[in-house]
Amino acid sequence: MIYTLTLNTAIDMNIFSDPIRPGVVNRTHHTEYCPNGKGVNVALVLNHFQQPAHILGIFGGFTGRYIVEELRTRKLSVTPAWVDEPTRINIFINDGEQEYKLVNPGSFINDECKQQIINELTNLTNAEYLVISGSLPQGIESNFYAEIMTLCQKKNIAVILDISHPALKQLLEFKPLLIKPNDEEVAAIFGLMVNSHEDARAALAELHALGAQNVLITLGARGMYFSNGTDSWFCRAPAIELVSSACAGDAALAAFLSVWLAGGEIKRALALAAATGADVAGSAGLGKLNNIDTLLLQIQVEKL
Asked: How far apart, in whole angstroms, are the C-alpha atoms of residue 275 and residue 258?
């Protein structure tokens, strides 16, 4: 069973308007609300590809209740840890000319809630994989990641990391099954550039040397690289008209996992990841995921 863990869940509010002007009332065309948090997104897309996933996460207040109820309405399994403060709302605005991203820090998480998470992980009996995604909320220090990784090692749960915290570099000592940084995170955390195939080979080799068993580097519209430590591949991204980049990386990871963890061909996993990420980037939130087959026709995957 695949579990996902989101320590900083959210509601995404996607707003569409005419070009925004300061000092005047800017009226919107329409607004869409989506339950969010990177691990939540991964579980939603895994579910779309008929791969069951169980959501673990922290939720609070009326916004947290909305997310849990919405996920359960969509027939996803959720085990919430609760706090009093409302779960954050992130705002994404597309005014026809620019995309604006307003991301809030999230609720303060107390020690009792952190212990809820540890207790839930300790009591898991059927977990093969744990996908840890997203940012740390207020009140949780980076050593909490190491505490979770240590627990997963004891329980023989393979960990997949999609986090942008500087602690990612130290966490590679735990030899995670897969990490999924984007090019900006590779530069910020590891000081490595990914501007060419040569750069990518060097970066992938360094990440493996630090402990990552497998590495998926996403580059947005430029595509993605994958390496299993022996071989590496590059997948080009299809051309789309960007609506919102929110959730696209999460969707790409989930699509990749839906094939790769089932033992499928790596080229197929990468192509599906690129098509799914592009489909989401061309819509609001996770969209309808109904243009993937068309996008797959544009995608090329090459072994480096």
From this structure: 13
Provide CB contacts within 8 A for 196, sequence distance 6+: none
Cα 197 from Cα 297, distance rounded (Å) = 23
3 state SS of 252: helix
β strands within 44-109, DSSP E? 53-60, 77-83, 88-94, 99-102
Does 287 have pLDDT greater than 90?
no
pLDDT at 204 over 80: yes
Maximum C-alpha span of the chain: 58
pLDDT score, position 70: 92
To 10 degrees, what angle do helices 248-260 and 38-48 make?
A: 50
**Token pair recorded at residue 214:** 């497998």
CA dist 106 → 12, 14, 25 (Å): 12, 18, 28
CA gap 16, 5 in Å, rounded: 30
Which DSSP letter does residue 285 get?
T
Q: Which amino acid is residue 93, in one-letter code?
A: I
Identify the DSSP state of 126. Answer: S
Pick the catalytic residue from 183, 250, 279, 293. Answer: 250
Q: What share of the chain is helix, strand, coil (3-state, %, to 5)?
A: 40, 25, 35
Can 279 be counted among the known catalytic residues?
A: no
Asked if residues 148 and 116 have their Cβ atoms less than 8 Å apart, the reply is no
What sections of the chain are H helices per DSSP? 38-48, 61-73, 111-122, 143-154, 168-171, 183-190, 197-210, 248-260, 266-281, 292-296
The backbone torsions φ and ψ at residue 219, rounded to the nearest 5 degrees and listed phi first, read -125, 20
Q: pTM of the prediction?
A: 0.90
Tell me if 46 sits within 8 A of 123, measured CB to CB: no
